[in-house]
Specification:
The protein is of the alpha/beta class. It contains seven helices and eleven strands.
């Protein structure tokens, strides 16, 4: 499998997909057409607007996507896709709509068969076994929390260390500690903004300037860098 899993689309002061655009372009350089885009995580704008936004951001790297909603036969489009791209937004809405259209299994099969997969934010989270480590509000109820299962560990995109001033709620770390207490067999990777994972032939690599925070029940959370061996995360 070939996966590019990006924490976020843009950090403060950046244009949309500004930082990961070059990497997306090189990652998809062998794919000239039939790049299918899943826009369902977008909520406050239309699918067409989402496609236009992505294409405007990626035009200079030679990537053009087509929204799955424009195909007469979406499952056939996925089965024949040169690549699959899943955008960020609300993870619950994304999964709900993918489930309703039968796309979970279709995308899983196509990616396992060799089509490159690119996701950011919700699109990265849905590549995990479940969406249980999303940060999003459950604005819609999916049939289940099952994700694509392309990787055997959980990602928490946009991972934050800070606790906002005058905020009395739980930190991101405390929420993840709750998750691993309930799911002690699972690793969670806190993927900070500006960071991304690359999977090539089952080898996992961290890309970016920031460290990765690892959570596992029974072990104190710890940091890893781009130089560290991440193979343990890919063990099923």
């Amino acid at each position: 499998m070939r996966l590019l899993l990006i924490s976020n689309s843009a950090s403060p002061g950046e244009k949309y997909l500004e930082r990961p655009a070059e990497h997306i372009g090189s990652f998809l350089s062998s794919v000239s057409e039939d790049i299918v885009f899943i826009p369902f995580a977008g909520v406050t704008f239309s699918h067409d607007e989402y496609v236009e936004r992505v294409n405007n951001a990626l035009a200079h790297v030679g990537v053009k996507v087509r929204g799955i909603h424009t195909y007469k036969h979406p499952l056939k489009a996925v089965a024949e896709a040169g690549a699959i791209v899943v955008g960020g937004g609300n993870t619950f809405r994304l999964v709900r709509m993918m489930q309703e259209q039968g796309l979970i299994e279709a995308i899983r099969e196509r990616v396992r068969a060799g089509a490159p997969y690119v996701g950011w934010s919700a699109g990265s989270n849905v590549a995990c076994p479940t969406i249980c480590t999303t940060n999003d509000m459950p604005i819609l109820e999916p049939r289940s929390f099952e994700g694509l299962g392309l990787i055997p560990f959980q990602i928490n995109p946009h991972y934050l260390d800070t606790h906002p001033e005058n905020h009395g709620g739980e930190t991101r770390e405390q929420r993840i500690l709750e998750y691993i207490a309930a799911n002690p067999e699972m690793y969670v990777a806190g993927l900070r903004e500006g960071s991304r994972f690359v999977v090539e032939d089952n080898k996992l690599t961290l890309v970016g300037e920031r460290t990765l925070r690892i959570f596992k029940q029974g072990v104190a959370p710890y940091e890893l860098t781009t130089e560290d061996d991440l193979s343990f995360l890919m063990e099923r």
